[in-house]
Amino acid sequence: MSVCTACNHENQSGVQFCDECGAKLELTATIPPSESAASYPQPGTGGEPASYRAKLVITRGGTVGKEFAVEASGETQIGRWDPDGGAFPEIDLTSDDAEAKISRKHARIFVQDGEYYVEDLGSLNGTYVNRGPRLMPGSPQLVKANDEVVMGKTFFKLLEA
């Protein structure tokens, strides 16, 4: 059993991504089955790793209320997991996108000069910020806390962790 360090979800051994939040499980700790997950900090209680200072929360479409940790450095890929197509996003929306409106490599969120940006990666159904115009692929858009990000038919809110 592996526990995701981003959301503390217990995953089956051998999986690469968290079933709950989509984070890479290379950042996980393996615990013996006899230990209770209740002894680990729960999301939102200050137990998140220091590498996360924001999260995307689904507000419409998919599993409303589901949270995804966003890297505080580097980038977080968003899309649908597809090993045959080489798509291994940190935020895997496969189970939250029954109609497949989110592309396998849909968008990314990254930090530059301490601020978050979202960039569409050439998705079919687009990425939108605060219901503004569709983002042009390769043109990052600044996003701040409480901004709405729409991908396909899934609506997210960016929150500070």
Describe the protein's architecture and organization:
By secondary structure, the chain is mainly β. It folds into 2 domains: 1-42, no CATH class; 50-160, Tumour Suppressor Smad4 (Sandwich). The protein contains no helices and 13 strands. A hairpin with a 2-residue loop joins strand 8 (107-112) and strand 9 (115-120). The chain is globular, with a radius of gyration of 15 Å. The two termini are 26 Å apart. Mean pLDDT is 81; it is low at 27-32 and 34-50.
The level 1 CATH classification of the largest domain is Mainly Beta
Order of helices and strands: EEEEEEEEEEEEE
> How many DSSP-defined strands?
13
Largest sheet: number of strands, sense, barrel closure? 5 strands, antiparallel
Instruction: Give the spatial strand order of the biggest sheet.
Output: 5-4-13-12-10
The CATH topology of the largest domain is: Tumour Suppressor Smad4
Measure the end-to-end span: 26 Å
What is the structural class? mainly beta
What is the multimeric organization of the chains shown? single chain
Compute the number of structural domains: 2
Q: What percent of residues adopt helix (DSSP H or I)? A: under 10%
Strand residue percentage: 25-35%
Summed up, the helix count is 0
Shape: globular
Low-confidence stretches: 27-32, 34-50
Integer-rounded radius of gyration: 15 Å
Average residue pLDDT: 81
